[in-house]
Amino acid sequence: MAIDDSSTVLELISTALSSKGYEVETAHSGKEGLIKYKEFRPDVVTLDLAMPGMDGYETFASLKRLDNYVNVIMLTAANHSSALQRCLQEGAIDFISKPFNASDLVNTIKRTMESRKYCNHDAAIFFSHLQSKLRHIARDSFFPDSYIELKNIQTIRNLEVDQGRYGAAQGQHYTPSEHDVCFVTRITGEREGMVISVIEAAELQYLFGTNDHIENKTPDKATEFFNMINIKVTSELANSTRSNINGEAVMSFVRPGAMGNFWKEAARMWNRIDMGIFEMGYGGKTVPFAIQMCYDGGLFK
Predict the structure, then answer these.
(1) Preceding peptide of 99 cis, ω within 30°
(2) Is 121-295 the same fold as 2-115?
(3) Whole-angstrom Cα distance, residue 51 to residue 7?
(4) CA distance 187 to 179
């Protein structure tokens, strides 16, 4: 849905998105937008920040009261930076600067739809905040001049295991690959679960310069790095959920696709995964890795 007092902007948005197969509702004011949001419950809302009467910030706050998980992309001019910052701090997921072209709009909507498709809102906030913590670990102790960015988030419920696939009936899945390496930390205390960092063996070799994974073991530095990552995830999880939980590094293993019993037991004990997909840039190369939190569903609602 698009909310904007400009008929020209609404026509541009409607035409651009309709041509790509999206269904688009439009509203000429914040008040009309609230009425239509209640009726249609759109996946994404584009919202003009500078509207007469109920402005974008007030409309955004009202949308949040209607639906705390609303996905809002702000449309803004450069001279509205302070109001935009307030919206982003309070949960707007992205913004597009005016004037914009149709391709920028379509790409932003597509990226938002994909990244939020299976995402739990509280988990999204958690992983977004975690990003800077992971950067400090990487830069301070292991990889100077590196960066870490969050690229995607998924929430997977109703876990199942089928022929080594660890996932869910509705088509979401994490498939442990023969080429992956996993580092596992157990969550104990008021809640139980696991934090699992997953990276391809070839990427691990690039970062730590070893072929040890071929011999079914992981290099000490890699184990130290990902154990630190997992423990940081656990401590941040305790802080953000106000839960009395601890992390204990328990194992790492290669070829997780062969660990069918491990994944089956995890799916039996814990019915949910929240997963952040990250990229680390180092030495001219981008290295993807995932962090999974598997637990009984009691940490994030």
Answers:
(1) yes
(2) no
(3) 12
(4) 26
Tally of CB atoms within 10 A around 124: 22
Cα gap 199→138, rounded to integer Å: 15
Q: Give the pLDDT confidence of 114-123 residue by residue, as tens digits.
A: 655 545 557 7
In angstroms, the Cα distances linking 252 to 49, 64, 159, 220 are 48, 41, 22, 11
Quick check: pTM over 0.70?
no
b/e for 54-93, b at 16 or more Cβ within 10 A?
bbbbebbebbbeeeeebbbbbbbeeebeebbeebeeebbb
Topology of the domain covering 121-295: Chemotaxis protein chec (3.40.1550)
Q: Which residues of the chain have pLDDT under 70?
A: 68-69, 78-81, 83-84, 114-121, 156-177, 210-219, 254-261, 263-264, 267-268, 271, 296-301
CATH 3.40.50.300 fits 2-115, yes or no: no
Domain boundaries, the chain: 2-115, 121-295
